[in-house]
Amino acid sequence: KTQHTRVEAFPSTPNKDRNTSSTSLETYIQADTHTSTMANVPAAAKPCSSSSKSSAERAFDENHSSKQMDLYSRQIGTFGVETMRKLVNLNVLIVGLQGVGAETAKNLILAGPRRVTLCDNEAVRIQDLGTNFCLDPSLVGVSRARASMKMLAELNEYVSVDVLEGGVASVNAELLSQYGAVVVCKNIPLSVLRGWSDICHQHVDAAGKPAPILFLMALTRGVTAAIFADFGPSHRITDPDGEPLRVNVIESMHLNEDGQLIVEVVADQHGLDDDTPISLEEIEGATELNGLAGLTARRVFDPYGPPEEKNTRLNPKRFRVCFPPDCEVSAAQIGTYTRGGIVTPHKKATVLSFLPLGQSVVTPGSLNHPHPEKLLLHQRAPQLHFAYLALWEYQANHGGALPPLHDKQAAEECVKLATSILEEHRSKKNDDVVTVEEIDPRVIRQTVLYAQCELSGICAFLGGVVAQEIVKRFGKYTPVHQWLYLDYFELLSENGPLPMPDTGATRYFNQIAIFGEEFQKKLSEQKWFLVGCGALGCEFLKAFALMGVGCSKTGLIHVTDMDRIELSNLNRQFLFRHKDVGQPKSVAAAAAAKVMNPKLNALSDETRVGPDTEDHFNDQFWNSLTGVCNALDNVEARRYTDSRCVFFEKPLLESGTMGTKAHSEVVVPHMTASYSEQKDNAPKGGIPMCTLRNFPHLIEHCIEWALAKFSDYFVDPAKELNMMKTDRGPFFAGVTKLGGPDMQLEKMESILSMLQKVVKRNYDTCIEMAFDVFEKEFSKTIRDLVYFFPETHEVTDKESGITRPFWSGAKRFPQAATFDMNDELQLNFLFCAANLYATMMNVPVVRDIKVFAERLAALKPTPAEWKPPSRGPDLFEDKEAASAAAKKVEAKKVTMMDVMQCKMKLIRFDGFKELPEMQVADFEKDDDTNFHVDFLTACANLRAWNYRIKLATRHGVKMIAGKIIPAIATTTAMITGLVSLELYKLALNLKLESFCCANINLAIASFQMFEPSLPKKAVREYSNDDLDYVNPIPDGFTCWDRVVVDEGDLTVQEFVDKFPSLHHGVTPEILVPQGVDTDMGNKVLYSTLLPTKSLRELVERNKSRKITEVYEELFGPLPAQNYLILDGSWETADMSPAKIPLVKYVFRHD
Questions:
Q1: d(CA 617, CA 643)
Q2: DSSP strands (E only) in 379-526
Q3: Backbone angles phi, psi at 1023, to 5 degrees
Q4: What whole-number distance in Å separates Cα of residue 781 and Cα of residue 769?
Q5: Cβ(451)–Cβ(221) under 8 Å?
Q6: Rounded to whole angstroms, how far apart are CA atoms 1087 and 1074?
Q7: Cα torsion for 1122, 1126, 1131, 1132, to the nearest 10°?
Q8: What is the spatial distance between Cα 460 and Cα 103, in angstroms, rounded to a whole number?
Q9: Which of 257, 849, 992, 1041 to pair with 12, CA 20 to 30 A apart?
Q10: Tens-place pLDDT, residues 982-1011
């Protein structure tokens, strides 16, 4: 009998969306049928009728805002809408609700399947509270599934969570057939698992066709873990990596001397591999290629050097088009290429074959392990495989029970069982059967001695990986094939298990069984600084609570985050609920973590960590810490926190995610490189301004342009009008910096026009203003550009003399919009723009698009007659085109007199008293009531229509414009689990080789763990400034080293005299505070290199003065701390240039 609490997946609430582009305009206004701009929109971009959509399609419509789209927005950015629509119809059975089961259920429920059934009738024990975050002491004795259900069900209102009351005994073929995926996270005899696996592997649908049920197993035994995956006899993968397709714009196309079709792209690299399936579209001239099926790409290698050497090198811009054997068109038969065209790569579908568990335990194929040294040098994966086989055999011999904790006799029994199983495998004389040279007794013993235990970090890792495997059921991403093992034997004492205390079981029983009671006390007294409380931060707080870190009166978890909780956070920041929306993240998360462990001593903060808050996070604060855990989403903040950790010599736990990808790093003072030393933070190139203004060829260009227009119309004017009302001086000063008189006049005329309209302040005025923007941006500007550069315009290359069409390659010939009352794109743009103007001017908005359409029709806006432009287009990077356009400008010259006359009109404007405070549009991507994303979508798509670019979905615009980083709960949970295991190593003071960093991509089941990098050592190198080699003193010092001068409040001369005896005979040539340029002349504490007599006399006088006194005179008040960080130039005893570690001058003792 199955009892469950069900929540309807898609409540039938009224559609409150404003942007109803899927419904024809005839429902809003009665108008004659016209040919609208949508006629030229690619079919894939046109919205379909809502009546023909399923509930999942309606909930996950990329062109509309909805609660589900907002909730899952970051996840959809990773999975895609199609996978999401399939996932919400999936039923999953999870067997086992200790740590792994709870973590898997959490991540899966956040992802959003239809139904999750929990199966575990065993009673909650107090030690379960150390790994299952759903439990509290009052639930001891209740079945794990029932006890876990309440908190899990709260995670996602769109997921039905129920409990299988019959437990494991009720699992049979009929029950399993109700589910699309089954996950086993419980120690169950192998004979039972084999039976379940076979049922899932051989399952067929009602028509008798193969329909395997995904069977997953995730087990942890002590400091080891194993994952098994069976996706069925034939699993089709349609997208192996989930990476977005890279569309290339064609620059040119020609037949080479061998008759092969060669394509050159606009980008520096086409990024195509050999045999990549491609499709060609929008080609003019050689139109036979458009939509031709079966085409593939081959890379092109160009010859270089002497012909006889036959050297070739890859041409990254060119590729060869290969035609399929049965193609009716050949390269020789296509027409002459004129211009245009895009290249779209396609991903090859692949099929993976899986074996059921019963066969795979003997012939597993590949046994994977994330640590290459353990895998290759120690055969760790196959050794662990035999350890798990031995444990299953032990269970079979002992009534299904695992070996008792720390039982050495049971460990030796399992060593014998593993050896016997190995001999049995060898006797099969089958190359596919797994074997090893010999059983490693240490691996078997260390697995068996702690088999009863589980660690929260390993549980979190398994829960993240396995939940992501469930998503792969639908063909997106590459599954684990078929076994993945993990171990952390380095955590175990070389002397074997530590004695257990007589105090009985506690929530920390598992950790005490592995590390000992003193270690647990040490964890509870540690003080950690958690920077950030988003998805990573929530997981870390959970980990700290479960592990007992900072869970004492002397311990502390200090968590800071400036942000407030938003709806979209609830999909992956699992400590938050709907009631928390709008609350500070750090406060809500700390409160939720304290529920998991009331002894957690958590201090919430809402202060940003940065140079401007060093008075808050001062020296006393940093010195009090055990370590720092970063949970940040930007590199700048990470680098700052890293610099603080280096300065105060504190360990740093660092991690980050992007979609299915994650990394983790552990930074240990004096042992490893700092975070900043390991990163290349070079800024990425932006989109050229000329491309944005006049020649977009990708939808991303249109979205960036729309963002700029959002600022141009709804941000800058509001600020300027507010400025005009209070103080016009700064406004006029800013205008003079714009450029020539024509640009100054244009700016002032636009402000004057807006002032005149703002004084009226009614909604019809807002519509008129929106219409003016539409006419200017999508009609007049395009007509102007075509006027300067007609479709037949040609350009001649000065070097080669070759003439080619101007509108070719990345330049797409545009089409101007003609206002059409029946056009959906145009109506949506006007609707959003008018409401943004209304918001800016404090005019009540119109949220009903039907009412808006009626008011628009009543106004009967009429486009102004187009006239040749008075100045050329802004062609920043194309000077030749700008010169050609300038020749066609027919306009009177704007003079400064014209500018002054307009300025006087502004000064004399008598409506300033009536001018309201303008509301500046502060772009907010997650508020569906403010018209921001809807405006950007309409604006970007009208721009795309102008240039015949495929339209964007609302969700796509939101992701790009909002700079949203794709994020999912599975990746976050997985990587934080690994990071928390590194915290154990820090507390154990392990050696460098025991620490692990990780690079993981769940999409392709890539798991890579490796030793941290060593600190970068200073080396002797040539300096162009010194025209000599600079020697590091001492040789090979690192960022962790210091020169501490603690000799009291010294004069400048005393410092100079004492320094050589303190640091290897090095003397200062120049002394300045850190961050001050040494070339600042008289802004130095000391220098031997001053060029003028007066400066030399000044420095000479300062020698007898205290350094602190000179500092205050030159640089202002002394810092709050009792020291200065000094920089400068240095030389060795033999007068050679030197570089030394950071110099810390302590001038007083507090």
A1: 13
A2: 483-487
A3: -115, 125
A4: 16
A5: yes
A6: 15
A7: 30
A8: 6
A9: 849
A10: 999 999 999 999 999 999 999 999 999 999
Indicate the residue type of 202. Q
Q: How distant, in Å, are the alpha carbons of 60, 118, 156, 959 from that of 85?
A: 7, 23, 16, 19
Q: What is the DSSP string of 1074-1102?
A: TTS-TT-TT--SEES---SHHHHHHHHHH
pLDDT given at position 797:
76
Q: What is the pLDDT of residue 20?
A: 29
Strands (E), 433-511: 483-487
Tell me phi and psi for residue 984, to 5 degrees. Answer: -55, -45
pLDDT reported for residue 1027: 77
Residue from 21, 26, 175 nearest 95 by CA = 175
Residue with tokens 């709960």: 969
Distances in whole angstroms, Cα of residue 101 to Cα of each of 187, 458, 980, 995: 11, 12, 18, 27
Residue 988, number of CB atoms within 10 A of its CB:
16
Question: E strands within 242-295?
Answer: 248-255, 261-265, 276-284
Q: What is the pTM assigned to this prediction?
A: 0.87
Q: How do strand 1137-1139 and strand 1028-1032 relate by DSSP bridges? A: parallel
What pLDDT is recorded for position 70?
A: 80
Contact 957, 936 (CB under 8 A): yes
Q: How far apart are CA 89 and CA 91, in angstroms?
A: 7
Q: Name 1144's bridge partners.
A: 1044, 1125
Q: Quick check: 981 and 455 in contact, CB under 8 A?
A: yes
Q: How far apart are CA 543 and CA 103, in angstroms?
A: 11
Structure tokens at 947: 């240039």
Instruction: Render pLDDT for 152-166 as a digit per residue (tens, 0 to 9).
Output: 999 999 999 999 988
Query: pLDDT averaged over the chain?
Result: 88
Choose among 263, 265, 249, 267: nearest CA to 296. Answer: 263
pLDDT score of 681: 46
Per-residue confidence (pLDDT) for residue 11, from 0 to 100: 29
The pLDDT assigned to 891 comes to 56
* Residue 123 DSSP label: B
Positions of the chain with pLDDT under 70 = 1-54, 503, 679-686, 871-892, 1077-1082, 1091
Which secondary-structure segment (H or E) carries 619? helix 619-623
Rounded CA gap, 973 and 511, in Å?
A: 20
